[in-house]
Amino acid sequence: MTWCGNVVNKLNLGFGYSDAEVSEAVSNINIPVLIINSEVDTVTPYFMGKDIYDSIQGENKKIWTVSDSKHTEMWLDHNQEYRDKVAELLESIK
Fold this sequence. Notes:
Elements: H1 2-13, H2 22-25, E1 33-38, H3 46-55, E2 61-66, H4 74-77, H5 79-93
Parallel strand pairs: 1-2
């Protein structure tokens, strides 16, 4: 399924996944950031989220890692904690 998203990006936006270096793009970001990842995610492995987190300069960042959820399933598996983490992020933007 990932290849399909890559093709759509190339056709609609003119770039593919391999053209985007997220860690570099976020290195100088100055807004609050919450990285949500899982140790068992096979689509976006844990190390990718950690690399992005480590690339962000400053202290305006948080990382939340779960050990048991598949890609994007933190919402289902850890619903209240997910809501709390996102609420904290939004509160910090006020």
